[in-house]
Amino acid sequence: THSYVHWNGTIEDTVFENMYYLDRTRMQKEASKYYDIYSNRWCALVKFWDIEAIHGASDYKIHISFEADVTGTPNDRKLAIFYLNDSYIINGGTRPNKDTTNGTRLTGFNNMAVVDYTYEPYNSSFVICTVGVNNSKIAESNVTVTPHGYLFFRSGTQNGRYRLAYVNGTSGKNISFAETNVTWTSSDSGNTFSQAAWTPKLSLDFSKSGMQHQMRLYAANELGSWSNSALLTNDIGLVYYPPTVPDINHFHIHGIDDYDMDGTYSGTFNVGLYLASDPDGGDVVHNLTLHYTNRTIVPNGIINNIINRTNSMHGDDPYADVSFNTSKYSAGEYTMRCVATDDEGKTSQTWLGTNFTLNKIDLRVISVTFDHWDTSENRSSVSETGTGCRVKENRNITVNATIANYANGNITSNFDLSFFDSAGVYGNWSRCFWNSTYNVSIEGELGNVTTGYPYNTTYITGYWNPSLVGTHNILAWVNPDNYASESAANTTNNNASAVINVSAWQKYYGNVSGGITLADSASDSLYDWTCSNEIDDGYAYIVNDGAGVTWSALHALGCDSDDTLNASGHDFLDADTSLGMVVGSNNATGFVDNNITELFSGGDPGTATNTTSFTVYGNLISNVSIVNSTGMTNHASVGNANFVTGILWDATSDTNGYYDTADDETLVFVTKIRAAATGLGGAAHNYEFAAPCTLNPVIGGDLDIYMELK
After folding, report:
1. Model's pTM, two decimal places?
2. Cα distance between residue 490 and residue 478, in whole Å
């Protein structure tokens, strides 16, 4: 004898009109063929009809059964399954996995789970996943289910391939499995699809509370006599399903998604997780932990144990970035596990499936030095002003940074060193004047068993053109973009600085000699005046090139145009402002003993430190602020110095009775001509005075020198 089992069910009109009723048994019996899914490029899209959505149900379960296989080693890159509703447009320009309005990720199977078959009828072997529909939406998403939808299969595996089983033979009906038109394939990540001439070994079943499973067994003998069993009924009630399986998808480091996750890492980076969902509709909490390669948990190995869709989802995409700070752990090999727990306490888990290495890196800038500056060509002759190295403006200076690795890990990635003017501004790239890259493939990996300077050390050079006067604190910042993957704790010592002073002053000196003859037309001499370097009466003046001077309109800086002391008290500060010699101007960190306010008024912007009188063009000018021309920072007995420099201002363009930045009055620097006396370099000359380099803001610009001889 033999028996036949008949399965009676209702075929919805919507389904029947769109897909012929195919024999599932024939599908299972036919030998499987396979379509390879890999590299995120080769993928498949399958259309199906949702019986419960057609009925208008809002809360139910979808059970997806499919057959797949695997070749090679996918390195735990999962076979991901996405749901899309009927609003998704095939070949509409959006990849299925990117359409988060109409679709969402359901789950993923690794290479072991995809062959952990639930049941194996005939020539088939099926795995099953269950998806919940709550309030007509895929569980924990905003994607609404529709009468028909799509399942999208993709994987990023490179070393192996997932294989989706299919058939294309006879179906026992008037259409073959090659003619169902329910499958599309893509070789460009789902940008474009082509119709496939086969049907996947895939079926969907639906269940919900209130349904009843009914079964009666019929049997016939060889004479065709039939008998049947009693009707067996089982009410379908609440079943608590475990969460779907989460996915440790990639490491996001330096702006790159690393899907292999088997390299060497350090610092802080993100772990990209695809989150699980609860088919029952509850919340799912994820716990990401760090483990040794034998899968025992590392002490303090909880990376994050409060990850859920509520606080981590990117829109409708069940994805979370979890920050992983590697500085808490020792160098060595590790792996990861993610456990998903729903509100009934049921769990699912995934292991990373590969091992990775944590490296310890601690780059430090040991020192910043300046080379090739201490020559007569570069060295400022006004050595008494400013701090640190003293150089002239507009000279290329070599800046050296000494870099050392103070941790026991090798630096395997290129890293940058950036030079900034000035300290404390790293990150402000407008102040960066030089950037160099340390290339590990050329220079070698920076690492050694013995850590720190001078063992794990290299030297990186930059160049700086100090065209801007003032005190500059040059900063070197190593690994600014953290390409070398340091931990956050180790990036605080990645910089060091050194002070260099670009002198704001230039000195002028020389001798005065010559003759003036007053004669008539017959060359009869009426007056013959001859001077030599023994002269002890007269003045030398220096002004910006082309600046006209009204000699009768000169006044002491610090006094108003009526020669009374200035009430505003800001003359010296205003002069520095006009000449670009205040802190912060031209990127200067400061002007320590290097501007008018510091030198002529001891830091007080309105009160002169030392004063004297000059008789200019026959007019006595009192309260003229002066400094020692030879030693500008020597404020002792300035009045008795061999040479002094004073500052006057020309009131010709004045509109308010005092010197200020608004009227931009001409500044005049003055010194007395005297009998030859010892000055700069220990040499004797008649005059010597100092003037700011910025008196003419053009580098190499001309200045006018006037002599008043008496």
Report:
1. 0.53
2. 11
- Within a 13 Å sphere around the CA of 456, how many CA atoms are in the beta-carbon half? 22
Nearest to 206 by CA among 26, 48, 32, 319: 48
Give the count of domains, the chain.
4
All residues at 6 or more sequence positions from 90 whose CB lies less than 8 Å from its CB, including other chains: 45, 184, 193
pLDDT tens-digit readout, 171-229: 877 789 999 999 999 999 999 999 999 999 998 988 888 787 778 888 888 887 888 88
Residue 546 banded pLDDT, cuts 50, 70, 90? confident
Q: Find where tokens 């299969």 sit.
A: 153
pLDDT (tens digit, 9 = 90+) per residue, 78-87? Answer: 899 999 999 9
**Domain span at 175:** 19-211
- Residue of 557, 645, 649 whose CA lies nearest to 605: 557
Q: How far apart are CA 344 and CA 243, in angstroms?
A: 10
Same domain, 519 and 642: yes
What 8-state DSSP symbol labels residue 12?
P
Residue 296, phi-psi category: left (phi > 0), alpha (psi -120 to 50), beta (remainder): beta
| Helix, strand, or coil (residue 642) | coil
Q: Are strands 495-502 and 389-391 parallel, antiparallel or unpaired?
A: parallel
The tens digit of pLDDT for each residue in 327-354 reads 788 888 999 999 999 988 999 999 988 8
- What's the distance, CA 6 to chain centroid? 65
Asked, as a colleague might, if the bond just before 454 is cis with ω within 30 of 0, I would say yes
**Other beta carbons less than 10 A from residue 643's beta carbon:** 26
Residue among 626, 648, 630 at smallest CA distance from 639: 626
> Are both 534 and 423 inside the same structural domain?
no
Q: Tens of pLDDT along 10-51?
A: 555 555 444 445 677 888 889 999 999 999 999 999 999 998
Q: Let me know whether 372 and 436 are in one domain.
A: yes
Q: Counting runs of H as helices and runs of E as strands, what totals does the chain give?
A: 7, 49
Whether residue 406 contacts residue 362, with contact meaning beta carbons closer than 8 Å, is answered with yes
Dmax over Cα atoms in the chain, in whole Å?
Answer: 164
* Distance separating alpha carbons of residues 251 and 629, to the nearest angstrom: 65
CB-CB contact of 151 with 202 (8 Å)? yes
- Tell me, yes or no, whether 372 and 347 share the same domain: no
Partnered with residue 402 across adjacent β-strands are 367, 459
Rounded CA gap, 557 and 125, in Å?
98
Residue 341 sits in the same domain as residue 392: no
